[in-house]
Amino acid sequence: xxxxxxxxxxxxAGPPVLRPWRALIAVLPFLAAVVAVxxxxxxxxxxxxxxxxxxxxxxxxxxxxxxxxxxxxxxLGLPAVLGVSIGVLVLRDAAAGALRGAIATGxxxxxxxxxxxxxxxxxxxxAGDAAAVRFPPSYLGLALxxxxxxxxxxxxxxxxxxxRADEVAGPARPTPPLGLADGETAGWSRTVGSPTLVVxxxxxxxxxxxxxxxxxxxxxxxxAVAALSCLVFAGVQVTADRxxxxxxxxxxxxxxxxxxxxxxxxxxxxxxxxxxxxxxxxYRLRGGRSGIVLRRGEALALxxxxxxxxxxxxxxxxxxxxxxxxxxxxxxxxxxxGPGQED
Length: 343
Known about the structure:
Elements: E1 3-5, H1 20-44, E2 52-56, E3 62-66, H2 68-91, H3 99-124, H4 137-158, E4 173-174, E5 185-193, H5 195-214, H6 218-232, E6 235-241, E7 244-248, E8 256-259, E9 264-272, H7 274-278, E10 282-286, E11 289-293, E12 297-304, E13 309-313, H8 317-337
Parallel strand pairs: 1-5, 11-13
Antiparallel strand pairs: 2-3, 4-9, 5-6, 6-7, 7-8, 9-12, 10-11, 12-13
Helix pairs in contact: 1-2, 1-3, 2-3, 2-5, 3-4, 3-5, 5-6
């Protein structure tokens, strides 16, 4: 029995599209946040207590303290990491179709970090005892308002995302079956990631850290769980073989989705717009269709025996569809001949 390795059939990808000016726009708010916090710290460094108040209860009373060096590490290090991450995504066009959202999210994170960092420093100014420093909850509301405003500014500065002609959503097109010899076994596998979740995960984690440091860690748990979910499911491995279609996280064994050949009628290729077709990203359900939608563009589309359609966005979907159609044809021929009529 031969094994046909279709995982090497993917055509060579072209060089990444570099977008230096858009990447500069994406990084600017993080630079501004770092400069603002650094400038304020430098101007008041002789007027703040050591250690300074860093953590506060829900009523604004300080209950934990940190050194100036630790404060700077958190308030300058996290924005720097986020800024570099988003800048690289935008520079290499790795968030194709979601660049505007990535830039707007970056602006919001930078605004949140900058506002909280400056506010914490100013509240510590001229405090003889750090335990007497207060950070009213309204300051956190102000920081969130600044973040929202910064997100609007970021979206406007980013401009509209370009949509290539081959990314326009359309109906699934049938795919001819792959030629398989008698007794030949074939397998296909790809890993696909979601630029949106890659950006959203660190962003939620950053918000959680800030809330934990500024208010309390109980309020940060929800953001930490959401961030972990985004990062775990920011990529999935899609496999097509004699068992059918399997979609699973490459990081954890469960959850795993499997659609056996017995539930399939036909496989094809479809162009997907996450917002236009499914209203968002992730595991989606809408009007007779379901699927795992991680990005815009090419998707493997399965017409199931119950009349529904299942899609998963993945590169080289045509090869997966051709393989599944070949395996479906083979299964139907086996059922038609019957076990007693096989050679």
